[in-house]
Specification:
The chain has a domain of about 100 residues: Serine Threonine Protein Phosphatase 5, Tetratricopeptide repeat (Alpha Horseshoe), CATH 1.25.40. The protein has about 240 residues and is an all-alpha fold. The longest helix is centred in the middle third of the chain and has 10 residues. It is about 45% helix and about 0% strand. The chain is built from 14 helices and no strands.
Length: about 240
């Protein structure tokens, strides 16, 4: 630490990148975010570029959003909605990994709640896909669009229905007025449940008003899907409500 104290003030190019990853000193410091004293020293440099990108087009803020505790002073002036090569913002990264505290800070800074990545997915969709209830709730309370659909027609609700461990996320989305019968390009959330055999989410959807007898473009029903993908328990569930 003593050597850093001496070298940092006299380093000519504080934004110089290393050859392997294209990281600057600030990128490296953010990867070791517990070293607050180093970050504080860097901040004293008026020529520090807080929006600099490495070879993966990640800014220091992106790196902090991977789950390290964000230190407000470190990224003061950073572009909160900057996108990398995958069109991910820091909020996408935080949502995709369930980092609720990080998300709250980013939202407080004015991060775009409905920003799309290269798949057309919003942060809420990223959280829903992995069943992160707490992060979903933070986004929904802040005003995220619960019924936004990607080009293929999927919504956050349909993404939460892909795994039977994500029932609570499904319930939360419905509580915030997710459309249980959003058709998508091919099928509704209930069809997604029938395809994966997700009985628990299926029951939640049906009790919330999902259409049990409706057909998709090819003429198949939810019951047809459950039989086709060999999910006898889901077949029984559908028959209860037919």
């Amino acid at each position: 630490m003593h050597k850093i104290n001496i070298l940092l003030p006299i380093t000519k190019d504080i934004n110089q990148k290393n050859l392997r990853q294209g990281d600057t000193l600030l990128h490296v410091a953010c990867k070791w975010a517990k070293k607050d004293e180093i970050l504080d020293l860097l901040l004293k440099r008026t020529d520090l570029d807080v929006n600099v990108q490495n070879n993966e087009e990640l800014t220091p803020l992106h790196i902090l959003a991977f789950g390290f505790q964000i230190k407000l002073s470190v990224v003061l002036g950073a572009h909160v909605d900057h996108k990398n090569e995958k069109e991910f913002t820091a909020l996408h990264y935080a949502a995709n990994n369930g980092f609720t505290k990080t998300m709250k800070v980013l939202i407080k800074w004015g991060a775009n709640l409905n920003v799309k990545d290269d798949y057309g997915m919003t942060p809420l969709m990223r959280s829903s896909k992995w069943g992160f209830v707490d992060t979903c709730k933070v986004l929904l309370e802040a005003g995220a669009d619960v019924n936004y659909a990607i080009p293929t027609g999927q919504t956050a609700l349909q993404m939460s229905c892909t795994n039977d461990r994500y029932t609570e996320a499904t319930k939360l989305l419905i509580a915030y007025d997710a459309n249980v019968n959003h058709p998508g390009c091919y099928s509704s959330a209930l069809f997604a449940c029938a395809k994966t055999g997700n009985v628990e989410c299926g029951r939640v959807l049906i009790e919330a008003g999902a259409n049990v007898t409706g057909k998709i473009r090819c003429g198949k029903t939810v019951l047809d899907f459950a039989r086709e993908y060999n999910h006898p328990k889901f077949v029984e569930l559908v028959k209860e409500y037919c």
